Amino acid sequence: MSTVFDCWKPDVSVQTMNILIVNQSVLDLCASFFTLLTAAVEVDGTRRSPDSIYDRFVCRMWLTRTPLWAMLFTSTYNILLMTLERYVAVIYPVWYSSNVRTRIIS
Asked: According to a count of CB atoms within 10 Å of the terminal CB, is the N or C end of the chain lower?
């Protein structure tokens, strides 16, 4: 009877890869959103006041495109993580199946 249930139980590597793929999709969606925003929204060329919180935010976050670069960096890091996860799963399958759990990845 346990053999039947083992066939229906999803593989840990499939679950882990699905989590990483969904995470990659969300990151790419956010990066695309910030790319469109930075292309569509232009900040006027007026002089910024160092005392204004809004002007500080615009200068430090928007003009430097920090959200866009953060999403691109995180997306690249996630691709690296997926590659390493697949490498370990293929090269060390016994260790991977006994030590890697979905909750560690998420």
From this structure: N
Distances (CA, A) of 77 to 24, 32, 47, 70, 97: 10, 16, 37, 10, 23
Provide the b/e sequence for 49-83 (b: ≥16 CB within 10 Å): eeeeeeeeeeeeeeeeeebbeebbebbeebeeebe
Instruction: Quote the domain boundaries for residue 76.
Output: 7-105
- pTM above the 0.85 mark? no
Report angle CA 75, 76, 82 to the nearest 5 degrees: 90
pLDDT tens per residue across span 58-72:
777 777 888 889 999
